[in-house]
Amino acid sequence: MQLKACDIFFTHGEGALSKAIRWFSRSPGEAKTETNHVGIVVDDGTLENAGVVEALSHVRYGTLPARYRGKRDTVSVWRPANLTKKERAAIVSKARGYIGRDYGWLKLGLHALGLQRFAKLDKWPICSYLVGKAYGVVGKEFGRDGNELTPDDILDFCQANPDKYKEVMPWTQL
Predict the structure, then answer these.
(1) CB 14 within 8 A of CB 68
(2) Run of H or E residues at 68
(3) Alpha helices in 44-120 (DSSP H)
(4) Are 98 and 130 in contact (CB under 8 A)?
């Protein structure tokens, strides 16, 4: 499988933090939340070697197998269909700019309390913030401001907009 820069990957983990994130990001009346984490592909390549950026304890560069192979987590990948070469370069540059930054634990707490609109500091990203802000540099948003996004919001937007995003890898355990 080939991944391309700006592909978005989602994960569904089985740990306590993963479950809590899914529980807190579910809106009243909404179907069960599928994802608790999101990241972005920044270097084209195969599933084995494509470079990705994701916000964990700090923002890291790596590969999907290095992080998720052999775990109970499942991964899904979605590809944007509405980006120019120039937009792709800008999104990748913004995502790479977060590498090495510490994770925004306070932002995560504000999200859990429903106060994400106050989580605007760019210094400490969370996963959905990183993807939302990277896409935001070219005016592509996922239905709400990047500060307020959850991984579920991004996945819901991709699923609801098949003209803009296509699933290129269904939920898979690596």
Answers:
(1) no
(2) helix 64-68
(3) 64-68, 85-96, 105-112
(4) yes
Average pLDDT along the chain, 174 residues, taken 10 residues at a time:
97 73 65 85 97 94 93 94 96 97 68 54 76 95 80 94 97 91
Written as one letter, the residue type at 78 is W
Rg (CA), the chain: 15
Q: Which two tokens stand for residue 12?
A: 């569904």
Cα separation of the two ends of the chain = 12
Residues 11-61: pLDDT tens digits?
A: 987 776 666 666 666 666 767 777 889 999 999 999 999 999 999 889 999
For the whole model, what pTM was predicted?
A: 0.86
Domain boundaries, the chain: 2-165
Torsion angle defined by CA atoms of residues 78, 9, 135 and 111, in that order, rounded to the nearest 10 degrees: 120
Phi, psi of 14 (to 5 degrees): -110, 0
Class of 2-165 in CATH: alpha beta
